[in-house]
Design goal:
The structure holds two protein chains of two kinds.
Chain A: H1 2-9, H2 15-42, H3 59-68, E1 74-76, H4 82-87, H5 92-99, H6 134-146, E2 153-158, H7 165-177, E3 181-187, E4 190-191, E5 194-195, H8 204-210, E6 214-218, H9 224-238, E7 244-249, H10 270-277, H11 281-284, H12 286-309
Helix pairs in contact in A: 1-2, 2-3, 2-12, 3-9, 5-12, 6-7
Chain B: E1 13-17, H1 18-32, E2 36-40, H2 48-51, H3 56-60, E3 65-66, H4 72-84, E4 88-93, H5 103-110, H6 113-116, E5 125-131, H7 146-150, E6 156-158, H8 163-176, E7 180-186, E8 193-197, E9 210-213, E10 218-222, H9 225-241, E11 245-249, H10 258-268, E12 271-278, H11 283-294, E13 304-308, H12 317-323, H13 327-339, H14 353-359
Parallel strand pairs in B: 2-3, 2-4, 4-5, 5-7, 6-7, 10-11, 10-12, 12-13
Antiparallel strand pairs in B: 1-8, 9-11
Helix pairs in contact in B: 1-8, 4-5, 9-13
The chains are: A alpha/beta, B alpha/beta.
Chain lengths: 323, 364
Amino acid sequence: MAAGMAAFQAGECSLMDSDERYRRLFRTALTIRLVEERIIELYPSDRIQSPVHLSIGQEAVAVGVCDALNADDLVFATYRSHGFYIAKGGPLDKMFAELYGRIGGVSKGKAGSMHLSAPEVGLMGSSAVVASSIPHAVGAALSFKRRGSSRVAVAVFGDGATEEGVYHESLNFAALMKVPVLFLCEDNGLAVHSFKNARQSYNLLEHAAIFGIESRRVDEGWDMLAIRQATLDALSVVRAGRPFVLEIATGRYKEHVGVGDDFHFGYRSAVDIDAWKARDPLLLDEKLVAELKPEIDREIAAAAAFAEKSPFPGRDELLTDII
Amino acid sequence: MNVSTKERPSTQTRVLSYAGALLETMDAALADHPNTFIMGQGVDDFKGIFGSTTGLAQKYGAERVFDVPLMEEGMTGVAIGAALVGDYPITTHIRADFSFLAMNQIVNLASKYRYMFGGIMSCPMLIRLVVGRSWGQGAQHSQSPQATFAHYPGLTVVMPSTSQAILDMYPQIIARHPGPVVSIEHRLLYNLDFSVSAETPSKPIPLTSYVAREGRDVTVVATSVMVLEALRAAQYVAEKAGIEVEVIDLNSISHPDWDLVIGSIRKTGRLVIADTSWLEYGVAGEVCRQVMVRDPSMLRQAPAMLGMAAAPCPTAKSLEDIYYPSQHETVEAIVTQVRGSGHGIELPVERSMTEGYKRFRGPF
């Protein structure tokens, strides 16, 4: 609640508004957590027969950022996008059906977990090739600018993606063309099992500065309201036609891909994540969890039931929608 | 010689260079479709991609025709993002070889976007590549990557061989093709003049293969500049030996009219494949695959194939001249198919294709 109080003290809103906002964000974050915990339970049953990249521990980023966006702003994300899908307002039933490989899924089961999208609420296609959706956000933003639209596009990526060439190309082009794009780095410090200090010779904010791009780092990656406010601040720059790099520190609780923990492999220690868990509102605010969980559980159960009933795509789908 | 034998209601023609046809279609795309823009290295400079975009930045403004940094992957990704929100991007690679830097976006994203997301999104766009072949372009400025791109479902790959093919295909690609199109243009064709129909076709012309010359003795399936080489050879063997060659311009590499191709091979029983790239795992292999899976007995003998030697392209002229099939070799392949190796027909002396196009400017 600390950040909510800070927002209140900054005179941004009344305490009641702030409380309502906290509950709204908390509820969305809890939905993401409970959906992914349900995925963990379901996974051994082979209802989901494809890789899943869980965002447990990183929910606050998706929730804080998406809450600051307008409904018609676009998000281009990655293979770890359950959080962004839910935070942007994607329907749970179509998500579960997609994960189950059913015709009732967002993409008729052809996308699965790694390629979630919900264009009707502004989540464009998620890509499983690291960094590859970053220039898409720049392109959409270029289009918005030429039309004189006030919409913005958000490129979501992890810290590993910033090592790819196309990240640098995208920053350079966005700065040159002055397009309304927010570069959002979810810095969980890991690329699969490699630590950032073994991969990067640069500081992300200094790197952005050489392109003349304003930037900010948020270290409190558990704090939804702080992330929301940082995003709103960044968006005021972006909507004025200048790209912005927002780096948010966060913690990936689970293994890179799959539904397990990975501390027993020895490449990292549970202690690294304990520091995040000690601040995690979804773990700390047990009262609010208890209050909200039953309803969310019912929504998840209904979505899973929808998926269960949806047919598998048949042979007629194999060769449709190619060109 | 007029390479277009497509039936047209009008006999009115005009002369138009390949670069001129490109400029006309780019201009019309910008005029007719406000959502269209062109970006690429040098599209707004004084050379204008060999004259195919010259003056368009001045005419339509820097927001619609603009230079980009050296960022092939980024540019293609930007195009995808713009296409996803309703724009129609046209990107250019002044040498096709540089499109390999954009392979991630073209192959992993653009080609898959519609299918991977279950048909709810697509990214229609035109990616123009120019095969740099001519005069010492060497190993990295001369490649012709049609087989590479046509391998991937989701991409439409065309190789216009004439000004008419550009006038027929580009407007409808830009106006209504639902997905990404890779068009592989050829530098040797840019400055050639062609006879084209003076009238706009009243209905869409399929993005597919067509008969460029009718004949009964042997079928030549050709791509891009090799269509012109085949037509020149056809004229030669008709005059020298009375051999009538049927030339099929494959035109669409990803979606050829196989019924048309197979029908012709059935008729003649003899096949020569003339492609601008390597034979290995390429157009030549695919044409043969189509024959094999249908009815290999339609061939009276083993087919002949013309393409680049199985090596990177050498720069030295003495090697480049033998790297590409010359008119001498094209004619030899055709007459050997029809008359056998002891044919006794005098072959043309031309042994360097590049030299041939230095002298010959058309109109075709």
